[in-house]
Amino acid sequence: MKIVVVGGGTGGTIVANNLARRLAREIMDRKVQISMLTDSDRHMYQPGLLYVAFGQMTPDQLYRDQASLLEPSIDFHVDAVTDFRLDRNEVETKSGKIHKYDVLIIATGARVVPEEVPGLNEGSESFFTEESAVRMHKRLMEFEGGTIVMTVSIPHKCPVAPVEAIFMMHDFFKARGIRDKVTLRYQYPVNAVHATRNVAHWAKPEFEKAGIEYETLFNLKEVDPVNKVIHSEEGTELKYDMLIAIPPHRGSEIADKNNLGQGGWIPTDRHKLSVEGYDNVYAIGDCTNIPVSKTGSAAHYEAEVLAENISSMIKTGTSVREYDGRVYCFIEAGYDRATYNSFDYVNLPDLKPASKSIHWFKMAYNQMYWTTVRGLL
Question: Residue 377 pLDDT more than 80?
Answer without folding.
Answer: no
